[in-house]
Design goal:
With 145 residues, the protein is mainly α. The protein has 6 helices and no strands.
């Protein structure tokens, strides 16, 4: 189990590094701009994965069958679902687009342009899910200190 988590985190780190090394193309076409926007949202929320892990570890020992324990458990579950959603999104995005399309501005087919529109909506919803789950968990933890 620990090796699976370690492999996941290493994969995520490598993906982030690859995204950060994205070349800035002189061609500021709409699709390149949209790809950059999608990747910017990813790059904004990716560092929050460590915050999610930290919060889960703080909530886990407090989750029990009491009313307050149920709130901890719900917050922990929301964080875990947000983390899984990020991993799923990255895998799906990587399955749809190759590294030249993501990093080098390679022209997209019409189908991939539609996919990019879909991915933009998904990553915006993902950002909201991650931010709200973190905010909720922090609020719950602060209210009990």
């Amino acid at each position: 189990m620990k090796s699976k988590i370690l492999i996941t985190y290493i994969s995520v780190i490598l993906f982030v590094i690859a995204c950060k090394e994205q070349k800035k193309s002189a061609d500021s076409s709409e699709e390149n701009s949209k790809m950059e926007q999608v990747m910017a949202i990813h790059d904004e929320v990716m560092p929050k994965m460590s915050t999610i892990g930290k919060l889960v570890s703080e909530l886990k020992p407090k989750a029990d069958s009491t009313e307050m324990g149920q709130q901890y458990n719900k917050a922990m579950t929301d964080l875990q679902e947000a983390h899984k959603a990020m991993m799923d999104w990255m895998k799906g995005f990587g399955d749809r687009f190759d590294s030249d399309e993501i990093l080098n501005g390679k022209m997209l087919t019409d189908e991939k342009k539609q996919w990019l529109d879909e991915e933009e909506l998904k990553v915006k919803a993902l950002k909201e899910q991650i931010n709200s789950s973190i905010e909720n968990a922090e609020k719950i933890l602060e209210s009990t200190e």
